[in-house]
Specification:
The structure is a homodimer of 157-residue chains.
Chain A: H1 3-10, H2 14-22, E1 30-31, E2 37-38, H3 41-55, H4 60-70, H5 77-110, H6 121-127, H7 129-135, H8 153-156
Antiparallel strand pairs in A: 1-2
The first copy, chain A, binds a DNA duplex (30 and 30 nucleotides) through α2.
DNA sequence: CTACGGCTTCCAACGATGGGAAAGTCAAGC
DNA sequence: GCTTGACTTTCCCATCGTTGGAAGCCGTAG
């Protein structure tokens, strides 16, 4: 099997297959005399495993651990479960952060007339929470953007 | 005010201030004879506006639009609200995707004994849904990783 | 004068992926 | 045997927002 065949069968692009090989996530494929990578069914299974784990949002690091456990006959399922639990916790953390943003935005949007008038609580809030609070004491800010807004962007993006 | 001062007052790193200037998000600062950027209170306000919008997860593109509206006295609040609504929809889409991953993982983790035994539904699922279904018909897979698993990773990360 | 901290620009890296160019390879059809 | 087209190879670049570092200039306190 050439790389294009494995790609079709595994759902992983040829670009990514070469990348995974390059970073050592999968072993270097054997080559034909002409330099073409050659694969067997085993490799398709491995790439499908990778794709499914990525679809579930596992990081490359977690994926590396999962693959090691996958190929370890004497693994303890507790180790797998621990990784899954850690990932679940991380996902839930992100969900909560996104939810906090959504809640704050929804709150602001509800108070915006959304008409031809330039008056807009959303912009007022972005311009400065303190001044806004002085003028619109009823508009309490939520977590995001508070006194110590903690740059979370990177973690979320 | 030098760039360090605005950075402290606005909460935006000097690196990012220069970057925002470079990509045209903010106008180029005036310079001293020695080439130092000089700022006024106005600039601090603008950077705080940017930081708050980023904290709420707005993209740079949306941010550009918001800043244009912010400085437009004749804006219609409807335009601002529309951007906010679009962003809310995007946030909710991401939340749903993360939630789907979480649900699928929780389901798998629940069925994993998490002991010293190598038997593990999580790994079996990653290894191949079809074979797993044949052996564990009660373990139905969720959305992520199904027949057409659609690469969503990029959108979420 | 010296030392230190702030400022400047430029370059690189991150993580995972896609795009594309230039060149070599293979197989089918003529 | 030759052409053609699909496939493969490596290499470089771009994304997106942000951080880090290096080399060198500036400003001020001691």
């Amino acid at each position: 099997m050439n790389i294009g065949d494995v790609s079709k069968e595994s759902g992983v692009s040829t670009k990514m297959i070469r990348y995974y090989e390059q970073i050592g996530l999968i072993p270097a494929a054997h080559r034909t005399e002409a330099g073409y990578r050659i694969y067997r069914d085993n490799d398709v299974h491995r790439l499908r495993f990778i794709r499914r784990a990525r679809d579930l949002g596992f990081s490359m690091d977690q994926l590396t651990q999962l693959m090691a456990l996958w190929s370890d006959r004497h693994r303890a399922s507790a180790d797998v479960k621990r990784i899954a639990r850690e990932h679940i916790a991380e996902l839930e953390r992100k969900i909560h952060e996104l939810q906090a943003m959504t809640d704050a935005l929804k709150h602001l949007a509800e108070h915006c007339h959304g008409d031809q008038d330039p008056e807009c609580p959303i912009l007022e809030d972005l311009a400065g929470a303190i001044e806004v609070e002085a003028r619109h004491a009823d508009l309490t800010r939520f977590g995001a953007g508070g006194a110590d807004p903690v740059r979370r962007k990177k973690e979320i993006q």
